[in-house]
Amino acid sequence: HTTLKGKDLLALYALTREEIMDILKVAAELKQKQKEGIPHPLLAGKTLAMIFTKSSTRTRVSFEVAMHQLGGYPLFLSGQELQLGRGETIADTARVLSRYVDGIMIRTYAHSDVEELARYADVPVINGLTDLNHPCQILADFQTIIEHKGRLEGLKLAYVGDGNNVCHSLLNGCAKVGMHISVATPKGYEPNAEIVQKAMADARASGAVVEILEDPCRAVKDADVIYTDVWASMGQEAEYAKRLKIFRPYQVNPDLVKGAKPDYLFMHCLPAHRGEEVAAEVIDGPNSVVFDEAENRLHAQKAVLALTIG
Ligand code: CP
Ligand code: NVA
């Protein structure tokens, strides 16, 4: 195996292609074991602290169940109930938690807060979503694509919608593994320029093509995967009405998907808003693999936990 032991998982651009492929391999093995009912207590006696300052269904439940299935203990900590919510520093929180637990998973707003937590923690820190990225989601997505298409390299993924955290991790992940990625966003909602630069640099090494476009039809042309996400992410609730108007032409609907390969996969990290970023006919249609994606959060994260903390 690669050397993920003791490492943080803050962003996919910080991993090598080999590390990503290793996580995916272990994820598939652990999924198989769980389906066959073979116990795999790789984290017996270990505890994961899970800090949430934003809502979650999938991330919370999948990490909690992951620790349980690995024989360890998950400790849910709401940001509001921690002293962090009353002004204790991130650095002190990191140093104190490191005396009790074997790993920390955090979901919060500023990515710099997670980097600071990781800097002061002596145990691995796993990013469960920040405003900047969502690496665990994309690992589960890659596991799902491999299950349905048998490979990642050489496929084309089209991301249509907001240039947000999920878009960023897709850019960085695809560039690492050699998947072609075409992103279409409205003007002013493009992905972060630094993220795109990192992706372009990695793409040169992997042979991937990274395209940042405005036209959703061009992005989905001959795509193997069409991916979208909400138009207003957590923390952007006040912009919801404005975004609804701006993003209307970016809805993934039966008309738009006609440009993709007939056997394209529809993907969405969920939660979804039918009638907004995606039409019900698409997300509830035969090409949709959104619940496989949701399931694979469990398996991909078990691999991350076993490799970093185990
Ligand atoms: N996809 C995802 O991260 O879902 P939650 O917000 O429910 O955790
Ligand atoms: N972009 C969304 C993803 C939710 C899993 C958000 O940040 O709210």
From TrEMBL:
Major location (coarse): cytoplasm
Query: EC number(s) of the enzyme?
Result: 2.1.3.3
Taken from the UniProt entry, a GO cellular component term is: cytoplasm
Q: Where in the cell is it found?
A: Cytoplasm
Q: Which family does it belong to?
A: Belongs to the aspartate/ornithine carbamoyltransferase superfamily. OTCase family.
Q: Which HAMAP family match?
A: OTCase
Mind telling me what this protein is named?
A: Ornithine carbamoyltransferase
Organism whose genome encodes this protein:
Thermincola ferriacetica
- Identify the taxonomic lineage of the organism of origin: Bacteria, Bacillati, Bacillota, Clostridia, Eubacteriales
